[in-house]
Amino acid sequence: MSAVVAVRAKRAISETGTGGACAPLSEILPAARVARFVRTTEWALAVSLLMLVGSTTSAFAQAATATPTPMMMPTIPQIQLQTVPAYGPAPLTVGFFVSSINPDAAPLASYIWNFGDGQVSMLPPTALFHTYTNPGSYVVNVTVTDTDGHQASSFAGVIVTQPAAQ
């Protein structure tokens, strides 16, 4: 109803001009029981219309506003990879230990190990041993996937030196 009121009021003002006699409010607001003339400016007419309409809100102010819904972020697994030992002469057998540092995440379901020397494993244990036969620096990577399908990776370095002289 308020939008109709505004349109009719604007039409009455534009037809009569500003400062002159306006159409009766009963023509502008057929539901209103006011039959008086308003001799005033557009501003005063708009104020009079708002007072007649009462405390109802205009259609423009009643536009639907979306209620924000909190976004639920997935719990991504967080892991830590430790190597024992991380340094030594070839052949060096290194133990790798994966621990989850996020207790609220879903359980870890699968593992993909890359030992940095061309060897890859999909063994599921959180503790794994691998032997390096050639000297060099290696970057070890483990990627885990939890039961919700989220993945996390962790890296560690291994340095293998020349074999000890015998």
Structure report:
The chain has 166 residues and is of the alpha+beta class. 19% of the residues lie in helices and 33% in strands. It is built from 3 helices and 8 strands, in the order H-H-H-E-E-E-E-E-E-E-E. The strands form 2 sheets. It has a 5-stranded mixed sheet, with no helix packed on it. A 3-stranded antiparallel sheet has the order 1-3-6, with no helix packed on it. Strand 4 (108-114) and strand 5 (120-121) form a beta hairpin. Helix 1 (2-16) packs antiparallel against helix 3 (42-53). The chain is elongated and about 80 Å long. The termini are far apart. The model is unreliable at 1-7, 12-20 and 31-41 (pLDDT under 50).
List key phrases describing it.
single chain; 19% helix; 8 strands; five-stranded mixed sheet; disordered N terminus; three-stranded antiparallel sheet; 166 residues; alpha+beta
Give me the secondary-structure topology.
Blueprint: H1 2-16, H2 25-28, H3 42-53, E1 79-84, E2 87-89, E3 92-100, E4 108-114, E5 120-121, E6 127-132, E7 136-146, E8 151-161
Helix pairs in contact: 1-3
Specify the oligomeric state: single chain
* Percent of residues in beta strands: 25-35%
Order of helix and strand elements from N to C terminus: HHHEEEEEEEE
**Mean pLDDT over the full residue set:** 74
> What is the distance, rounded to the nearest whole angstrom, between the alpha carbons of the first and last residues?
100 Å
Which sheet architecture does the biggest sheet show? 5 strands, mixed
Strand order of the largest sheet: 2-8-7-4-5
Unreliable spans are 1-7, 12-20, 31-41
* Outline type: elongated
Structural class: alpha+beta
Radius of gyration: 39 Å
Residue share in helix: 10-25%
The count of strands amounts to: 8
Number of H/I helices: 3
